[in-house]
Amino acid sequence: MNKFVSFGEVLWDVFPNEKKIGGAPLNVASRLNSFSNEVTMISAIGKDELGKLIIDYLETQHLSTANIQVLNDFETGKVSVTLNKKGAASYVIEHPKAWDKIQFTTEALEKVKNSDAFVFGSLVTRDEISRETLYQYLKAASYKIFDVNIRKPFYDIKTLSDLMLKADFIKFNDEELYEIAADLGSPYNNLEQNLHFMSSKTATKRICVTKGEHGAVLLFNDKLYYNSGYLVDVVDTVGSGDSFLATLIHNLTANVPPQKALDLACALGALVASNKGANAIIKKESIDSFMHL
Questions:
Q1: What is the mean pLDDT of the chain?
Q2: What burial class does residue 239 get, using C-beta atoms within 10 Å of its C-beta: 0-12 exposed, 13-18 middle, 19+ buried?
Q3: What is the CATH number of the domain that holds 64?
Q4: How many angstroms separate the Cα of 48 from the Cα of each of 17, 41, 97, 107?
Q5: How far is the C-alpha of 145 from the C-alpha of 245, rounded, in Å?
Q6: Total structural domains within the chain
Q7: Entry pTM
Q8: Which residues lie below 8 Å from residue 214, measured CB to CB, with a gap of 6+?
Q9: Cis amide prior to 96 (ω within 30 degrees)
């Protein structure tokens, strides 16, 4: 069991016919928690019914709510989600919401200091208050995992570059890799070349790039590992990348060989995409059967 801290947005994904609890950092925390790690979620909700429902959900998952701040002046976050015919999601993210206003606390700082890994994304930096809080925690974290999560118009290349330079591990999807590499002056059109370009630019030796249904590539201490993906009937892709990341870092921090860690992560990401919502319950037996282990 390892100690993880996840920092950032907790919110509701609002689909045309239903709503589900989400937010990439919360999805990562929930999946890490399902692997029996000690997980701390740092975020903020509004003093409203949607916030109360998030607290109730976290308590049923036995995930601590001690560092979820309840704010009087801002509502709990909501995101309008639209799915295309292939189940791929697009988002409209309301601003400002409670998770934009996460305050620094000494209690949370102690959790960060004592963690094995600190997980954070880029979306939470769209607001100055949460951004400055994040920067304070990054100074204290021993191992920093950056989940790049570009959501237009809520990012800029200067902030992304700064966060990448602070990170020990970076996760992109392939579109994010190409876009950010080009912004930083990459002359390359090949994924592997751009991956090495980003590693050089950021002085980061551990980078993962997801490729949707086509799997992922992992650069781990100067060696590349590949998984070509798993065939599933996609229901929706919401949260599949978050479960992928949680599975990958859970196994890597447990010293599972990188290739096995990558294969397990791709399998769980695919299984999540074959279910509704970001936090489907998927047991080890289901993963083993799916992978024919």
A1: 93
A2: buried
A3: 3.40.1190.20
A4: 21, 19, 12, 24
A5: 10
A6: 1
A7: 0.94
A8: 228, 229
A9: yes
Task: Say how far apart CA 24 and CA 80 lie, in whole Å.
Answer: 14
Helices (H), 35-68: 49-60
Residue type, 288: D
Give me the domain span that covers residue 285.
3-291
Run of H or E including 121: strand 117-121
**Whether the predicted pLDDT of 277 surpasses 70:** no
Structure token digits, residue 16? 């045309």
Looking up tokens 């929930």 gives: 30
Give tens-digit pLDDT for 138-150.
Answer: 999 999 999 998 8
- At 234-276, the pLDDT tens digits run 887 667 899 999 999 999 999 999 999 999 999 999 998 888 7
- Label residues 55-79 b or e (16+ Cβ within 10 Å = b): eebbeebebbeebbeebeebbbbbb
Q: How would DSSP label each residue in 220-288?
A: ETTEEEEE-------S--TTHHHHHHHHHHHHHHTT--HHHHHHHHHHHHHHHHTSSSS-----HHHHH
